[in-house]
């Protein structure tokens, strides 16, 4: 097991064709520029990065917690960072915007695609609600599939998936 901040240790392993980061792990990294520099040394030219981040503004989350008068939870992402508890330990969580992420990974990586995840589909912690409304969830999934790449919508879901390509050396 290796912490993301220790990526340089993988240099001996040779070049990688791609890298995948899921479950918003990169939201817990203090310096995305450092990660990008390390990945630039590890990913082959034309190799891909698939990076999943929690967004700064999740409309479902905001509306859900506003309806329950839980203002702190409703707006916890909006400032760009918060502290979460993981196993009783505080973890700083950051919510960079899509342009901030692109700046951190340029000029070594070029954004190829960007899609929102969970724009109309509720976040996973609302699964009990989703199980009671399967028809609504199917309709929401169809709407998500239609609008997930639209510039105005892709950043307001629960997550965003960015695909970068490593620029030629």
Question: What are the key terms here?
Answer:
169 residues, alpha+beta, Rossmann fold, four-stranded mixed β-sheet, two-stranded antiparallel sheet, 6 helices, 31% helix, 28% strand, globular
Which helices and strands, and how do they pair?
Elements lengths: L15 E6 L10 H11 E12 L4 H9 L3 H4 L6 E6 L2 E6 L3 H8 L3 E9 L9 H6 L1 H14 L11 E8 L3
Parallel strand pairs: 1-2
Antiparallel strand pairs: 2-6, 3-4, 5-6
Helix pairs in contact: 1-4
Mean pLDDT over the residues: 93
The number of distinct helices, counting runs of at least 4 residues, comes to 6
Number of domains as seen in the coordinates? 1
SSE order, one letter for each helix or strand? EHEHHEEHEHHE
Looking at this structure, what is the CATH superfamily?
Vaccinia Virus protein VP39
Separation of the first and last Cα atoms:
29 Å
Name the strands of the widest sheet in spatial order: 1-2-6-5
**DSSP E strands, number:** 6
Overall radius of gyration: 17 Å
Query: Helical residue percent?
Result: 25-40%
Overall shape: globular
What's the CATH architecture name?
3-Layer(aba) Sandwich
| Alpha-beta classification | alpha+beta
Strand content: 25-35%
* CATH topology description: Rossmann fold
Oligomeric category: single chain
Q: How does the major sheet shape up? A: 4 strands, mixed
Low-confidence stretches: none
Highest-level CATH class: Alpha Beta
